[in-house]
């Protein structure tokens, strides 16, 4: 709790720029002090809103793709790769004098240090955060602080540019009451006045409540924003951080919605090719909207620990980013990049992390293709920090712009990978656990069906050939290994439908209940030896529930968690998991259509943020006047039947507890239970709920039953042979029925004829693997713009992973596969395979 209180104090002393339009007229910068992009304090009053509105005209769900030619955003071609540089905010917090730290001498010193130490490796952005301004001019436009920049802000900008660098500044949405009351003329448009620019009735414009929402339906609002941006451009500004953007910034319910104003700033900035970076903790439901208007967006809270003079950040602030990266990776690419905030790994003990943790953070930033910018004091970089920040092969991973994805997040030993344009893979092995471990990357999990050569990128050393996997020995706790895996010639590579090289034309949707997930369901057989009649199996209701205790290995805990047992308080299985750290989290990935979070309530507990599939769904209060066990504090039951992830993040209170999760799944076995009596033996039957060809295997404790011997399959009826069951011990036997699903449990789907997707590859052959279903029709397949075949994707029942097209014998080189929807209600695409050269 002490850390959080320091956090709150630090926020209070930083100067909120209140950008241009919102800095109250006549106030000095020091009088306009305010917070930055940090989680709200426990018990803090929530910002009031005059009214709650939803701007449906600009809503764009994150899983709808509307074009095959993604915009490069306001910055144009400059945003084709993540930017590299430095931002002042971490040092503003660390110094505990944030409003004065960004003075001219300090910024010039940081620019010179970058020029000397980091610029040869690609670092060139100098971003000046909150507090750079000192008021407004007679047109309501921001003017730089004369206290901070006594020789003029222009002299600082010119110095940065003379070093071959770019300069950025800070702003937030909204317009202040003082600006409304002043009713100033808009520069170049005397017919427009600032007093008429607020949306009526007045609505809160930013998270902190510094100003009111701007009425973008008023043409004068865009002219006013244009006048501010034109002024910034005349100074030579190259970058704008736009903070407190909603939905997001801790406010995801659309009671605050700055999207229309963000669009106005985006349009103004695009005329000058100025990079627009949005902050903070943006709502993932609008990921594609953010990409349509911006070049980058923060996906989580500030990385700073808010412990002035002690450290810049802390390991929990890094480890909590892994589930965020798993949610957001597919939303980034050329033109728009996820943002993890400052990479603070350059100053040794000042960083607040061990050497292993520093390298893990640098690796996560690199493989996630997020902007590679640091928050350290560049005049005090230590040797190890310089090594981390200047490794050319690691920088190359970041600049390749291929966000990595996890093989699985159901463990603290995680393998992340990305497929590069040259058909090599970047593979990172992150040990998020507390003990060292050997870690293995199985090539098949990456989509690689080939031997490959392996190179250690941090060590810059070739490690030789590997056939089907590579094992890294003794990865330290909170440590990492980073590799390049290059397939041998003629290797086969599988590519999912959400790979960056798959470009969509027309309106496509990812999943949206068009997918079928792989799933395993047990048939519970009660084995007896009594001679009595076997218990009558109950019919399946169509829904089954799965209870998971807090120590289930599939629940991943990030931060500093402990387990308390033998409590005697009525908890499920008499234990709980608990933490005291704000920002610590649990996550669980499951297949189903609903999930419950069950915990204790108590006076020592507080609020918990609940995310489902990356979107903030609720903030639940686990505080109570007295302790009570097994309390249902969050439940959701209307999810599409498929793959989902629930995550809970501690927000306030002394403790956060996890007792039990309950998952609801579609039942695929009818009945789901059976009885077998050794003294009166009979076969056991059950009916499966999917096409028989989708049943992959039946297993008992990991040992696969033999089809035809241990069981038979006739239509949808599975018969478990009595001879097999007779070998089982008295008690409960669980036979796991495994059903395959779409590749990686997802598909893309289009409903309008003419919708198409393209896939560029270098090789000698290509296959298209997708679903067949009664609602599908025909599609035309083109190779290098030549129509090769029309394929029929209709089938009486929905089935997965069917090869519907193959083309071999292509000349080794660059090719393009294109598929166009011709008929049917829907076209699904799932997986592409290609042969990697000769």
The separation of the N and C termini measures: 61 Å
Low-confidence stretches at least 5 residues in length (pLDDT < 50)?
1-69
According to DSSP, the number of beta strands is 55
SS strand fraction: 25-35%
CATH class of the largest domain: Alpha Beta
User: Helical percent range?
Assistant: 10-25%
The CATH fourth-level homologous superfamily of the largest domain: Aldolase class I
> What is the CATH architecture annotation of the largest domain?
Alpha-Beta Barrel
Tell me the strand order in the biggest sheet. 12-11-10-9-6-3-2-13
In DSSP terms, counting alpha (H) and pi (I) runs of 4 or more, how many helices? Answer: 17
Q: What gyration radius follows from the Cα positions, in whole Å? A: 29 Å
Give the CA-based shape: globular
Structural class: alpha+beta
CATH topology of the largest domain: TIM Barrel
Largest sheet: 8 strands, parallel
Mean pLDDT: 90
Number of domains: 5
